Amino acid sequence: MTARHTAVSRVLFRVLILNLAVAVAKIAFGYTSGAISILSDGFHSLTDAASNVVGLVGVRAAARPMTTIPIADAIIHIEPPPKRGSQADVADEKLAGKV
């Protein structure tokens, strides 16, 4: 990992820990006080923590070296057979002056 990837991972991990701490505090306070809004906000903070996990996975994936795959050899071009007598064909032939 480069220095930038390491720095971004460090920030995301710290924010993850803080989000988890805030989520636990809000859930505990909401549960003990009976405040549904604070309890639901605590669960919302858990989804924020999940976003940090997604960010950490993304940074780790971005830090991996690129791989090259020869795509040009694998391209297969298949065209469907033309439909005879469709309205589009008739219109194309009229434009081309064949009809």
Structure, briefly:
By secondary structure, the chain is mainly alpha-helical.
How would you sum up this structure, described in words?
The protein has 99 residues and is mainly alpha-helical. It has a domain at 3-66. 70% of the residues lie in helices and 0% in strands. The protein is built from three helices and no strands. The chain is elongated and about 80 Å long. The mean pLDDT is 82.
The percent of residues in helical segments reads: 55-70%
Strand content: under 5%
Net shape: elongated
Low-confidence parts, pLDDT < 50 over ≥5 residues?
Answer: none
Question: Tell me about the biggest sheet?
Answer: none
Write down the secondary-structure element order. Answer: HHH
Number of helices: 3
CA gyration radius, whole angstroms: 28 Å
First-to-last CA distance? 66 Å
